[in-house]
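For concreteness, we quote verbatim a single protein encoded this way:
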Amino acid sequence: MEIITQSLPTASIWPNDGQIPGIPKNPRFIRDERFVKLVRSIIDHPEMLDLREILVIEYADQYVVIAGNMRLRAVVEAAAISDADLAVIIEEKQSLENFIEWFSAFSALRASKTIPCKIIPKSATIEQIKAYIIKDNVAFGGDDFDLLANEWDQDDLIDWGMLLPAPIEESEEGEQEQKQSIVKLVIEFSGSLLDFDEVKRRVSDIVEEFPSAKLRD
């Protein structure tokens, strides 16, 4: 199978919305906050697009993304950044050693509005393409969070879009709160119904003073 690598105009590439018969729409989505981080990631490191191309297949004289739908959206967004916003980012980056290299790479992205792609040949079967879609989104490995905590800057990891587990202290605290929330107080009563109504009224008055408590029949 011969696979061609080529930079294509983003205007000629369509997200996978299920338009190709037999191929389900892209199952991957990204929340607003993480999408903003992805856009910023591309602005900060546009050269990474050459290191990991998106996968596309030719369809109806255009191209459809098989893997990299979110990156395509983010590249379109990054390339359309306003001059005012770019000026702010340039101000942030002017002190970097690789400023000229970065500015050249990002300016080329803005001007060309293209994205590096690997073009899947038309000989690929539907089953192969479906496998590419899922396998591109599967994380086979795991992360050593102890190593990440000790040897990496946490703010950098968050800025780069990595999802980190909550601190252990917070988790234990949350478990303790959950345990406390299910504590029950049982009152046994064997008197007359009139006395029962009075007891229930008085207990209800006490419970109302504590928002976390509930009175159940």
